[in-house]
């Protein structure tokens, strides 16, 4: 349960809260979905979910129609067991549709996200430490600015993440064993031109810019067992694979452009 990836996390959080909101109207009815939480926390979540910003920038009803596929652990497991053959037929279209919906909605303002994070910290203090789903929702909201951008980058008409997945899953297997993970090994020996794309630069830059000096983000990553050591390994693998140009970009062009979406 801990080693869940960030996109799955966002999906589960949206699906759960979205399900609660689209199918029920009262605060009490959130309980079966989120689990029992104190009334103050219920009220906090309800206020956020029904506030003016939230439903505009995270349009649950529109996002939900394909989430059943995406959050079914059997399907995720099936894809992960053989990503090269299963990504295209099973996941690509639902994920692209999900992204189209998310990215055609306005981006939540950073201020709005900050307020939601603060409200949950205060209103749900006692529940946060013991309710895992609530933690997921909190993490997804806190990481939203980065996740949303990483999901929404496009190269022409193709979502960057899809371009990357398509490329990676089409790579030939590595002739030698490096890490023992077939996918990582085939990336390691792949032609850098295939991997060090503009798209991946944008995604990587957004990620590292967002977590730079962001204590909350780092804390969340640590709770997902992604510690500083792993982050540094990722950074140096990227630098080795993609070279100084990619790395320079990483460290000097890091101004994270936060939303201009205001109310
Ligand atoms: C994705 O969206 C397209 C166009 O809106 C639609 O035709 C298609 O059925 C959708 N696919 C899935 C799996 O929902
Ligand atoms: C996903 O990416 C591949 C490779 O760029 C592209 O051919 C395909 O059309 C994309 N799929 C969708 C649904 O946009
Ligand atoms: C960031 O947003 C500002 C203000 O909307 C815009 O003028 C600027 O070009 C953006 N910067 C980048 C790097 O996208």
Put the structure in a nutshell.
With 263 residues, this protein is mainly α. The protein has 17 helices and 2 strands.
Give the integer mean of the pLDDT values.
77
Largest pleated sheet? 2 strands, antiparallel
Net shape: globular
Number of helices: 17
Total individual domains: 2
Order of helices and strands: HHHHHHHHHHHEEHHHHHH
Category from helices, strands and their pairing? mainly alpha
Strand content: under 5%
Radius of gyration, taken over Cα atoms and rounded to an integer in Å:
19 Å
Report strand order across the widest sheet.
Answer: 1-2
Q: What would you call the quaternary organization?
A: single chain
User: Which stretches are low in confidence, meaning pLDDT under 50 for 5 or more residues running?
Assistant: 1-7, 19-27, 251-263
The kinds of small molecule bound in this structure are:
2-acetamido-2-deoxy-beta-D-glucopyranose
Distance between the termini: 37 Å
3D structure, described in words:
It is built from 17 helices and 2 strands. The protein is an all-alpha fold. The protein has 2 domains: 152 residues, no CATH class; 110 residues, no CATH class. A two-stranded antiparallel sheet has the order 1-2. The radius of gyration is 19 Å and the shape is globular. The N terminus and C terminus are likely disordered. Bound molecules: 2-acetamido-2-deoxy-beta-D-glucopyranose (3 copies). One 2-acetamido-2-deoxy-beta-D-glucopyranose binds next to α8. The site of one 2-acetamido-2-deoxy-beta-D-glucopyranose has 7 residues, from α8 and α12. Keywords: Signal.
């Amino acid at each position: 349960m801990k080693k869940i990836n960030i996109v799955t996390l966002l999906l589960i959080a949206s699906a759960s809260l979205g399900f609660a909101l689209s199918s029920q109207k009262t605060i009490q009815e959130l309980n079966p979905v989120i689990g029992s939480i104190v009334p103050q926390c219920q009220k906090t979540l309800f206020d956020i979910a029904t506030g003016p910003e939230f439903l505009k920038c995270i349009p649950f009803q529109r996002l939900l129609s394909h989430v059943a596929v995406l959050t079914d652990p059997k399907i995720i497991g099936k894809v992960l067991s053989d990503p090269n053959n299963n990504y295209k037929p099973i996941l690509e279209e639902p994920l692209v549709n999900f992204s189209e919906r998310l990215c055609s909605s306005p981006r939540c303002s950073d201020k709005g996200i900050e307020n939601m994070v603060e409200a949950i910290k205060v209103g749900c203090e006692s529940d946060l430490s013991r309710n895992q789903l609530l933690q997921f929702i909190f993490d997804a909201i806190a990481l939203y600015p980065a996740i949303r951008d990483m999901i929404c980058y496009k190269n022409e008409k193709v979502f960057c993440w899809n371009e990357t997945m398509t490329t990676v899953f089409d790579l030939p297997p590595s002739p030698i064993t490096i890490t023992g993970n077939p996918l990582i090994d085939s990336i390691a020996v792949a032609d850098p031109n295939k991997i060090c794309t503009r798209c991946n630069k944008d995604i990587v830059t957004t990620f590292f810019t967002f977590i730079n000096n962001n204590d909350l983000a780092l804390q969340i990553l640590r709770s997902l067992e992604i510690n500083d050591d792993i982050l540094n390994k990722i950074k140096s693998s990227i630098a080795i694979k993609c070279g100084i140009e990619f790395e320079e970009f990483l460290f000097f062009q890091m101004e994270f452009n936060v939303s201009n979406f205001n109310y």
